[in-house]
UniProtKB/TrEMBL annotation:
It comes from the Bacteria. The keyword Repeat does not apply. One of its GO terms (cellular component) is phycobilisome. Keywords: Antenna complex, Lyase, Phycobilisome. The lineage of its organism: Bacteria, Bacillati, Cyanobacteriota, Cyanophyceae, Nostocales. Coiled coil: none annotated. InterPro entries: ARM-like (IPR011989), ARM-type_fold (IPR016024), DUF1822 (IPR014951). Gene3D superfamilies: Leucine-rich Repeat Variant. The keyword Lyase applies. One of its GO terms (molecular function) is lyase activity. This is DUF1822 family protein. Belongs to the CpcE/RpcE/PecE family.
Length: 489
């Protein structure tokens, strides 16, 4: 057992901690079945990893005598993972659902409604699993009953999930084994689903088999969707058709997007803990791709004096409320370039971040604060990665820029940009889209053309904030090709 895992086990002794060997990770990755889009491939990877590790623990260490079986069978798993997260295990008359997630924050447990509201799928117990392939471990950090999810869970009609707060789960699995031996009824009543005619089913299969970079689980009303999935034959047909018609995603030659969602909160955590902007998974610092902005000139000052206290003080004066907003914005950017470690610059940027009414000025203050005082809990961070959509932009690729900063109530502010790496204009029709993890469009902006049908915009940008643990996607589309990145706040 690694030192990290040993320490975690000591901190949380009531949870089940399982070590994953590099061989297990490699074997799981190489044994993957076919899926029609990247998110499904990642879903299958984390579910198979969880299933194999948990079954091995169940047989070796749990003390449970019943022989565990995969429900309905291992051969059926791909048809589940193509469209929904989760795996079912049968222990005699007891059914257990494993719901693995890779996020670092475990303040909330989410279960797809399919596992709760499809009568044939519903289980007695639902286990919350955190998977960390990078550090080679997973843990079962709690469980809930079907009755608890139905009666106390918060139902989200947009994502079609039931959620419970961490404190509402039971942490120790021994309690579950005792309750199982006592034969308690842990299932709530489930409303029957309608019966689909063969004609309805074939129509649905035709609609839902179209290639998409996301699960079709939200495309039709739940009652109809649930009825389709409840049929082994129709679910398998849906899988076969989608795999035969996969969504082809064009990715960057410079840095292919990872299947694992990018954890934005980890970016903030890294900069606080290490005091520097780490480069990882193809994401680079903004300055590595784009040259740092030239500081606005300070009259009468030579280049070597830019970081002197007097120069910094003169820039700080430009942050005052009586200055035009554009000047305050520019001055905040300059402080990020010349004020590293200067306590007056840090104080001025912190005050500007709290007092400024203009959203762009606040963003500039947060990002500059991240440069001059990386460990500051209010600091923002900006990263970028190159993408290639096969378009000739004067020989240049474009970059996706993602900036984040902490907000109130643990929310994370997200500021997106797409821009050519060496200046110039974006091609008309290029789109920047923000989607839910299920593919629903939240925001979208499109590059415009001028009177000569040439590019008009130097960049595209969107801004929003999200609560912790929210999954979303960013897509850049152009010339019939697209690149999608998955994130979690």
């Amino acid at each position: 057992m690694s030192n990290i895992l040993s320490a975690l086990t000591t901190l949380y002794p009531n949870q089940v901690w399982l070590e994953l060997s590099p061989q297990e990770l490699e074997q799981t990755g190489s044994s993957q079945q076919e899926y029609s889009y990247d998110v499904a491939r990642w879903t299958a990877f984390k579910n198979r990893l969880t299933l194999d590790a948990f079954l091995a623990w169940l047989k070796a260490e749990s003390g449970v005598e019943d022989q565990p079986e995969v429900w309905p069978s291992r051969d059926d798993l791909s048809s589940f993972w193509e469209v929904v997260n989760g795996t079912a295990i049968q222990l005699g008359e007891t059914r257990i659902i494993l719901i693995p997630n890779e996020g670092m924050d475990i303040n909330e447990y989410e279960v797809p409604a399919e596992w709760v509201d499809i009568p044939q799928w519903a289980a007695d117990y639902y286990l919350a699993v955190q998977v960390n392939p990078d550090d080679c471990w997973l843990r079962v950090w709690g469980y809930a009953t079907h009755k608890k999810l139905k009666q106390a869970g918060q139902y989200n009609s947009i994502s079609r999930t039931y959620s419970l707060k961490r404190g509402e789960l039971i942490e120790e699995l021994n309690v579950m084994w005792v309750a199982r031996e006592l034969g308690s009824d842990h299932k709530a009543a489930i409303k029957p689903l309608p019966t689909l005619s063969p004609t309805q089913a074939h129509r649905l299969l035709e609609q839902l088999s179209q290639k998409t970079p996301y699960s079709p689980r939200l495309e039709v009303p739940f009652a109809i969707w649930g009825s389709l999935l409840a049929s082994d034959e129709w679910r398998q047909t849906l899988y076969n058709r989608r795999v035969a018609n996969p969504y082809v995603q064009v990715v960057s030659h410079a840095a292919a997007p990872s299947k694992k969602p990018v954890e934005l909160r980890q970016w903030l955590r890294h900069i606080v803990e290490s005091g520097r902007n780490l480069v990882e998974d193809g994401w680079q610092t903004f300055e590595d791709i784009f040259a740092s902005p030239e500081p606005i000139p300070i009259r009468g000052q030579k280049e070597v004096e830019r970081t002197s206290p007097n120069v910094i003080a003169s820039v700080i004066r430009l942050l005052q409320p009586n200055q035009p907003e554009e000047i305050r914005y520019q001055a905040a950017g300059v402080l990020g370039e010349i004020g590293a470690g200067n306590p007056d610059a840090i104080k001025a940027l912190t005050e500007l971040l709290q007092a400024a009414r203009d959203e762009e000025t606040r963003w500039q203050a947060a990002l500059s604060l991240g440069k001059v005082d990386p460990g500051n809990p209010q600091a923002g961070i900006k990263k970028a990665r190159l993408i290639d959509l096969g378009m000739q932009l004067g020989g240049n690729t474009v970059a996706l820029v993602v900036a984040i900063m902490p907000k109130a109530d643990e929310r994370i502010g997200v500021f997106l940009q797409v821009q050519p790496c060496s200046g110039g204009k974006l091609p008309p029709g290029l789109k920047l889209t923000v989607l839910t993890e299920f593919g629903e469009t939240l925001q979208e902006v499109t590059a415009r053309s001028n009177a000569q049908s040439r590019g008009k915009d130097k960049l595209l940008q969107l801004c929003f904030s999200l609560p912790p643990g929210t999954r979303f996607c960013i897509r850049v589309t152009g010339d019939n090709a697209s690149v999608t990145e998955n994130f979690v706040t």
